[in-house]
């Protein structure tokens, strides 16, 4: 790339790392306000019922109870649904009061499977929603019928992807207080989307947006689960307004598992038509997502699962049918990858199955069908840079594909899978970010950004971008972020768009402030503004470091010229979009850029216990330029282990609407003991849109670990698994069946 | 019936009024404001509430406060001496052994208990003894590297 960079590209610790290791980093539940009250939510014990009556009188009479509020007006739709909320002087009293609320339910028939829920005559979960289908799209690209007629071989397979809980370590919490004089509500919330939360609270509380201030403290992980407005936010705010006291709601772990969000379980049928040489000509894809009791982000999830079938592989003809169906179960929502992991599992598995049937090499098939930068896209995506085919080659080489695939002893295998993900979204409601950069007299830099750091290091990455632009070390930067009362607008952390969107906004603000300063000192230095560079806390003429001054001197001379202090630069950024799209109706360029990756797994299957050990996972990754390679690796490593959980261990088990494993002990996501060897290989591209060439790195990496692992299991024991997760029981059953088949 | 007890926390004696069923975690967080000890599950399953009792790692969410009477309790707030970071803390920072930071205090204290017992534990010992501390962000790799990096610095006392 040639450009000399100092702060961008450096492996710097997170700016708030010292707070985090000292235990002084404050999360929502760590905040205490004088006179604070504590809330608790009563939850439905039945999966589907009419509410005949809610009697709160006994709860209200309990000493210490300050307020009771009925949340459910007519119905409950899943076990765990919000019914009523209580506010008391301490959490124990609130808990006791919740148990004193008497609710009369008239139970209704319930439905727990999306395919059953979609049938005529199934119980109606939401009034007027026909076939319980809250959202459906059917889209065709190219001429599918004609293309299928031209195929040499057509394959159709059915897959299932299970519900996965995000399980962030920090339970969801909110703390609110209200100022009766100016009518302003302030809420501290474990949220990924402070500005959307402001809008949602304004709508539900019926108070102006300007009177809602959302402050995001440290957030202990989100992965998509902290995007929606939850009862804890609304109730903390409502009681704070009604009672005139600060109110805190903190969910228990069981509530996080049952009452927040989960990755949508999905039934998928894929029909793929190919030429003999493995070229994909057409695909037909049908998805039934189990939405649980409410809608959440269903339309986006379905659209993503559809459109991202046409990337990273060239699928010139596609017909997609997607349904989001209500059931009386926990609610689906955005989770790392948002609808794409389910689809990728199906497609990547089927590609391997087809390669085996046609006698082709699974890596070659992927390279053959790889899309490339600049080529026309059936849904009008604009692919500026694409390292996909490179990533397949590099991942295959690193895992030892040629030497190992099909050649390892029984129980050992390698597999790979590819993926692509958007770096944020181009044009859906207010998807733009703003930033302000101010220079202090001593050269210190003050950044205001709306971006929501939920542990991924967004504040650090944004600070690195500003520091690079202004030629200062990162310790000169102070950043204030994600406070709707102080910082500029930002949509929040979702869709893996923060680095590109908020990073670009901050970069523009830094350029603006640098420009102001350079315009002023250019005369003094008898230089052309365009020749000035900022580096090492100095501004000087390019190529002549002696012709310059320190940043601090420049600022002081600016100030003594009676120019406004502090020097402020503003920036705002949204993705350039040729054609605005939400994807629901029109096609268009969904994202400013797209990341690409191939992940390759090596597994060991214990033939006696059925346990699968992921030995090694290689990721060849085109995330553009890594602003902070250490943080990118962190995203990647977390994704690999999360994806391993999805492949082998995790499953929200629901029986008749009741979640059977709502605890860390029973759910069992990966621990230290399961940690595989993880290797990252950079596939460098220089994206023209991202700041300093950066693309997304947070979500795409969780798309292909699961299929890579399941493909490796096929290589190890010759069994094609179609349903996640691949538990030891399934392995043993499959081995037994295989043995029986052989004998008979 | 509440009663006053004395607890030795981070070298200081605190007199606190507790109920017999109060957990140590409740006392640390809700009564003393030592918020570095985290409540992740309240079930002894995630390790975020780990503290050291007489040098051993304990889950403060499933330990009664009264059971800690007469013992030395160390929380994350008491780890660093003076203005500097403890070597483990520094290693977590420099090796990127944290993301959201919620599991971090528990991770560091568990690591301290391991390294206090055995200066150069094997990789397997570290993995096994840290398996009770869950992290959903990092995939554990950089946490592991942070701990390994400290064990490799020979001759350092913790």
Explain what this protein looks like in three dimensions:
The complex is a heterodimer of chains A (744) and B (158). Chain A is α+β, with helices and mostly antiparallel strands and 744 residues long. Chain A folds into three domains: 167-260, 2-Layer Sandwich (Aldehyde Oxidoreductase, domain 4); 262-426 and 581-743, 2-Layer Sandwich (Aldehyde Oxidoreductase, domain 4); 432-573, Aldehyde oxidase/xanthine dehydrogenase, molybdopterin binding domain (Aldehyde Oxidoreductase, domain 4), CATH 3.30.365. Chain A has 20 helices and 30 strands. In chain A, strand 26 and strand 27 (612-622) form a beta hairpin. Chain A starts with 16 loop residues before the first helix and ends with a helix. Chain B is of the alpha+beta class. Chain B has two domains: 3-77, Ubiquitin-like (UB roll), CATH 3.10.20; 87-152, Orthogonal Bundle (DNA polymerase, domain 1). Chain B is 32% helix and 16% strand. Chain B has five helices and five strands; from the N terminus they run ββαβββαααα. Chain B has helices spanning 24-31, 87-94, 104-117, 123-130, 141-152; strands at 3-9, 12-18, 50-53, 56-59, 72-74. Chain B has a five-stranded mixed sheet with strand order 2-1-5-3-4, with helices on both faces. In chain B, strand 3 (50-53) and strand 4 (56-59) form a beta hairpin. In chain B, helix 2 packs across helix 5. The longest helix of chain B has 14 residues, at 104-117. Chain B is globular. The N and C termini of chain B lie far apart (40 Å). The relative contact order of chain B is 0.16. The mean pLDDT of chain B is 95. Classes of the chains: A alpha+beta (744), B alpha+beta (158). At the A-B interface, helix 1 and helix 17 of A face helix 2, helix 3, helix 4 and helix 5 of B.
């Amino acid at each position: 790339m040639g450009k000399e960079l100092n702060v961008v590209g450096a492996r710097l610790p997170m700016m708030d790392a010292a707070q985090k290791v000292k235990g002084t980093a404050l999360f929502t539940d760590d905040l205490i306000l004088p006179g604070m009250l504590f809330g608790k939510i009563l939850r439905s014990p039945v999966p589907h019922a009419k509410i005949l009556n809610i009697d709160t009188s006994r709860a209200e009479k309990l000493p210490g109870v300050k307020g009771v509020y009925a949340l459910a007006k007519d119905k409950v739709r899943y076990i765990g649904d919000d019914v009523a909320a209580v506010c008391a002087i301490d959490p124990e009293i609130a808990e006791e009061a919740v148990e004193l609320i008497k609710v009369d339910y008239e139970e209704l028939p319930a439905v727990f499977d999306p395919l059953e829920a979609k049938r005529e005559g199934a119980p109606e979960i939401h009034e007027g929603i026909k076939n319980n289908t809250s959202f459906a799209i059917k889209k065709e690209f190219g001429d599918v019928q004609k293309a299928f007629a031209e195929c040499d071989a057509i394959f159709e397979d059915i897959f299932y992807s299970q519900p996965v809980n995000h399980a962030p370590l920090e339970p969801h919490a909110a703390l609110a207080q209200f100022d009766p004089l100016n009518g302003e509500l302030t809420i501290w919330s474990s949220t990924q989307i402070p500005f959307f939360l402001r809008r949602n609270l304004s709508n539900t509380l019926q108070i102006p947006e300007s009177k809602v201030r959302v402050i995001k403290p440290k957030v202990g992980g989100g992965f998509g689960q902290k995007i929606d407005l939850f009862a804890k936010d609304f109730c903390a705010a409502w009681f704070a307004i009604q009672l005139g006291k600060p109110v805190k709601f903190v969910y228990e772990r069981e509530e996080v598992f049952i009452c927040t969000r989960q990755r949508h379980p999905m039934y998928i049928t894929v029909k793929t038509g190919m030429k003999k040489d493995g070229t994909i000509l057409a695909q037909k894809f049908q998805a039934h997502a189990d939405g649980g009791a409410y809608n959440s982000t269903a339309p986006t999830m379905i659209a993503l699962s559809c459109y991202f079938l046409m990337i990273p592989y060239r699928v010139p003809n596609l017909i997609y049918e997607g349904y989001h169906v209500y059931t009386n179960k926990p609610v689906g929502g955005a989770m790392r990858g948002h609808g794409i992991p389910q689809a990728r599992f199906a497609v990547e598995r089927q590609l391997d199955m087809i390669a085996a049937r046609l006698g082709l090499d699974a890596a070659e098939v992927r390279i053959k069908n790889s899309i490339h930068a600049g080529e026309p896209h059936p849904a009008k995506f604009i692919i500026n840079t694409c390292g996909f085919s490179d990533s397949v080659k590099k991942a295959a080489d690193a895992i030892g594909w040629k030497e190992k695939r099909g050649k390892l002893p029984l129980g050992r295998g390698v597999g790979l899978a590819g993926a692509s993900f958007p770096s944020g979204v181009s044009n859906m409601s207010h998807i733009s970010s703003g930033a302000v950069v101010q220079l202090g007299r001593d050269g210190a830099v003050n950044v205001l950004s709306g971006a929501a750091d939920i542990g991924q290091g967004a504040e650090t990455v944004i600070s690195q971008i500003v520091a690079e632009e202004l030629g200062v070390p990162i310790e000169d930067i102070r950043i204030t972020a994600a406070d709707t009362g102080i910082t500029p607008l930002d949509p929040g952390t979702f869709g893996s768009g923060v680095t590109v969107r908020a990073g670009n906004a901050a970069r523009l603000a830094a350029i603006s402030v640098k420009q102001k300063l350079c315009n002023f000192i250019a005369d003094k230095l008898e230089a052309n503004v365009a020749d000035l560079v900022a580096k090492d806390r100095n501004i000087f003429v390019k190529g002549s470091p002696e012709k310059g001054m320190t940043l601090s001197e420049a600022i002081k001379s600016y100030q003594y010229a009676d120019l406004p202090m502090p020097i402020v630069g503003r920036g705002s950024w949204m993705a350039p979009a040729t054609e605005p799209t939400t994807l629901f109706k029109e096609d268009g360029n969904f994202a400013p850029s797209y990341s690409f990756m191939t992940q390759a797994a090596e597994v060991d299957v214990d033939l006696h216990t059925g346990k699968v050990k992921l030995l090694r996972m290689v990721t060849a990754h085109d995330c553009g330029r890594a602003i902070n390679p250490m943080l990118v690796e962190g995203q990647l490593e977390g994704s690999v282990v999360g994806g391993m959980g999805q492949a082998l261990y995790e499953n929200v088990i629901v029986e008749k609407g009741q979640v059977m494993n709502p605890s860390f002990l029973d759910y069992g996501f990966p621990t230290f003991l399961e940690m595989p060897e993880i290797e990252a290989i950079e596939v460098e591209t220089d994206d023209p849109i991202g700041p300093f060439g950066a693309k997304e790195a947070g979500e795409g990496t969780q798309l292909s670990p699961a299929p890579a692992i399941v493909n490796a299991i096929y290589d190890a024991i010759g069994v094609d698994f179609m349903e996640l997760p691949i538990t030891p029981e399934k392995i043993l059953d499959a081995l037994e069946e295989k043995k029986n088949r052989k004998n008979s | 019936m509440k009663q006053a007890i004395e607890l030795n926390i981070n070298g200081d004696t605190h007199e606190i009024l507790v109920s017999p069923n109060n957990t140590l975690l409740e006392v640390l967080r809700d009564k003393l404001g030592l918020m570095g000890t985290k409540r992740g599950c309240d079930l002894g399953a995630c390790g975020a509430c780990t503290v050291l009792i007489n040098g051993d790692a304990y889950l403060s969410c499933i330990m009664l406060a009264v059971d800690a009477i007469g013992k030395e309790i160390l929380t994350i707030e008491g780890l660093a001496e003076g203005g500097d970071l403890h070597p483990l803390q520094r290693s977590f920072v420099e090796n990127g052994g944290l993301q959201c930071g919620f599991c971090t205090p528990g991770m560091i204290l568990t690591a301290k208990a391991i390294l206090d017992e055995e200066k150069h534990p094997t990789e397997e010992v570290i993995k096994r003894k840290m398996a009770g501390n869950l992290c959903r962000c990092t995939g554990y790799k950089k946490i592991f590297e942070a701990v390994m990096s400290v064990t490799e610095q020979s001759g350092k006392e913790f």
